[in-house]
Design goal:
The structure is a single chain. By secondary structure, this protein is α+β, with helices and mostly antiparallel strands. It has a single domain, classed as Arc Repressor Mutant, subunit A (Orthogonal Bundle). The chain is built from four helices and seven strands. It has a five-stranded antiparallel sheet with strand order 4-3-2-1-5, with no helix packed on it. The longest helix has 50 residues. The termini are far apart.
């Protein structure tokens, strides 16, 4: 979920934004919705990159990265969470979060935070589905390409060794024969 380092929430604005590039006057962002509006965000705006956001938990770890929570949601609910955040009861939202992350800290994770997580997940799955490609899948694809290259290299090295082996053997035979001739003479 390396894409999350390009996605941000901007305080005072609804939705999520893709960070396009920094400029002298702030950051240029593009909204993650059907409009895809580009806008300039000033240097005083509070911008939270999703890669740096985490969810408080009870337990050995104080928090879990939002990327891990999104992967859990993706595994359990697929491409979209059907729970409507505007009409859902607090109980439904807590049950949802308990299903996804049972160890979440109920005293520090508010209902509004759960609503944001659901809304952000639905936005990302709709407008940036590549964010949910598991790192293991990407690593597997890279490993497969590396293994193929390694196999090709090993085949070439084996072929070179087999071709050079008879030549070395004949050189040794000539050297022995040459020594024998010198000894006889």
């Amino acid at each position: 979920m390396d894409l999350l380092k390009e996605i941000a929430n901007i305080s005072g604005k609804s939705g999520l934004y893709r960070i396009l590039k920094p400029s002298r006057a702030g950051v240029i962002v593009e909204s993650l919705n059907e409009k895809r509006e580009k806008t300039m965000i000033g240097p005083t705006a509070r911008v939270s990159v999703l890669k740096d956001v985490s969810v408080f938990t009870d337990g050995a770890e104080d928090s879990v990265p939002l990327a891990d929570v999104f992967m859990q949601i993706n595994e359990k609910y697929g491409n979209e969470v059907e729970l409507d955040t505007k009409t859902a009861s607090d109980k439904d939202l807590i049950e949802f979060m308990n299903d996804v992350l049972p160890e979440f800290d109920r005293s520090r994770v508010y209902i509004s935070d759960i609503k944001k997580i659901i809304n952000w997940y639905n936005l990302l799955s709709q407008y940036a589905p590549e964010a949910f490609v598991a790192p293991a899948e990407a690593a597997t694809e890279e490993t497969t390409a590396e293994e193929t290259a390694t196999v090709d290299t090993a085949t070439v090295e084996t072929a070179e060794t087999e071709e050079s082996a008879p030549v070395e053997a004949s050189d040794e035979a000539e050297a022995k024969g040459g020594k024998a001739k010198k000894n006889k003479a």
